[in-house]
């Protein structure tokens, strides 16, 4: 029996392979002709040759397997023409963008359907403008935009003008779509007969599924995971767990936070999350491939009591039902596919989650 886990770090051009094999004597055979497979030779009388499919092409090598117990490991070098980056750059965080943003919708005609009954709700032909919303932390970056940031002063005409313009919500106009990481905003006067709303929520008129909420500024916010998108003839959906993932991204980009305490008070669920590497590609024995992954250490429960233990931990309150449980389930699914010796790091469980 042979199980493996492969991790490709594009930014350093390295491929790490961990192999679980119950017998000793496992050896490296050869690299495939295209550099994207690795042959291993075992000691069993039957089925003693194994092939590992690699996520990228690697250089020919005579590398020797290292092992401890039943776990072997091997390090390979990606070929030079494969994508590789400067370690000092922050290109990965810059490239991490949520799905269904402007860059996606301008590729071709798009239509959004109710994820429950498939009724057509929003169509590109009815809208003349699509734009991305600013980061939710845009106001905190004002120091980088202005040499002399305006201050609130009732006697200052300039300050009042600034406050009136920039302290209000960004509201879409009629015929315009505004996009954030987790929501799609349109003006309530842009709605068609297939969408109805009350004082708080927006519903599909056919199946009555809740699609989003009515905001105080008069805009309608659709939850992306309640919709199904057809963009340039491709059908896509978004998992509800991305709601948690997007909040982590916002904190990473705005504050470089790596340690989080995430909780959903509605179901008394909480988890600690420690974010490590970004942008890796991983694969397993079952040929399951995940790209653009974030490596996460996590454990159930909140941080230990005491200010010394919570000083550098960012609290995220999840107000969307089932989002946190779905996020943890994605981590648990990957964790269960890792070789047993790689599933934990001390008291932390090890998981990966794809950002695509």
Automatic annotation (TrEMBL):
Transmembrane segments: none annotated. InterPro entries: UBQ-conj_enz_E2-bd_prot (IPR019193). It comes from the Eukaryota. GO terms for cellular component: cytosol; nucleus; ubiquitin ligase complex. GO terms for biological process: proteasome-mediated ubiquitin-dependent protein catabolic process; protein autoubiquitination; protein monoubiquitination; protein polyubiquitination. GO terms for molecular function: cyclin binding; ubiquitin conjugating enzyme binding; ubiquitin protein ligase activity. Pfam families: HECT_2. This is Uncharacterized protein YJR141W. It comes from Kluyveromyces marxianus (strain DMKU3-1042 / BCC 29191 / NBRC 104275) (Yeast). The lineage of its organism: Eukaryota, Fungi, Dikarya, Ascomycota, Saccharomycotina.
């Amino acid at each position: 029996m042979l199980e493996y886990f492969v991790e490709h770090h594009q930014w350093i051009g390295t491929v790490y392979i961990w192999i679980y094999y119950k017998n000793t004597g496992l050896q490296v055979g050869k690299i495939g002709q295209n550099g994207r497979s690795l042959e291993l030779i075992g000691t069993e009388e039957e089925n003693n040759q194994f092939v590992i499919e690699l996520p990228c092409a690697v250089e020919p090598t005579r590398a020797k397997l290292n092992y401890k117990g039943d776990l072997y490991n091997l390090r390979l070098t990606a070929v030079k023409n494969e994508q590789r980056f400067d370690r000092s750059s922050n290109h990965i965080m810059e490239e991490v963008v949520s799905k269904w943003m402007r860059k996606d919708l301008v590729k071709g005609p798009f239509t959004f359907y109710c994820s429950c009954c498939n009724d057509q709700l929003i169509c590109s032909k009815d809208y003349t403008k699509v734009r991305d919303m600013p980061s939710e932390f845009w106001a905190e970056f004002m120091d980088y935009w202005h040499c002399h940031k305006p201050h609130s002063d009732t006697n200052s005409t300039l300050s009042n003008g600034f406050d009136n313009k920039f302290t209000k919500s960004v509201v879409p106009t009629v015929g315009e779509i505004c996009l954030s990481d987790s929501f799609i905003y349109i003006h309530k006067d842009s709605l068609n007969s297939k969408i109805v709303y009350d004082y708080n929520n927006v519903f599909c008129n056919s199946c009555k599924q809740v699609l989003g909420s009515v905001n105080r500024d008069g805009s309608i916010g659709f939850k992306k995971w309640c919709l199904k998108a057809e963009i340039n003839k491709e059908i896509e959906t978004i998992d509800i767990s991305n709601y948690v993932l997007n909040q982590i991204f916002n904190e990473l980009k705005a504050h470089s936070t790596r340690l989080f305490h995430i909780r959903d008070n509605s179901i008394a669920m909480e988890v600690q999350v420690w974010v490590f590497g970004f942008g890796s590609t991983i694969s397993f024995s079952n040929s399951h491939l995940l790209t653009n992954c974030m490596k996460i250490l996590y454990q159930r429960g909140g941080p230990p009591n005491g200010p010394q233990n919570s000083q550098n931990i960012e609290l995220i309150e999840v107000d969307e039902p089932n989002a946190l449980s779905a996020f943890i389930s994605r981590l648990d699914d990957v964790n269960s596919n890792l070789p047993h010796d790689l599933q934990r790091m001390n008291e932390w469980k090890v998981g990966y989650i794809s950002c695509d």
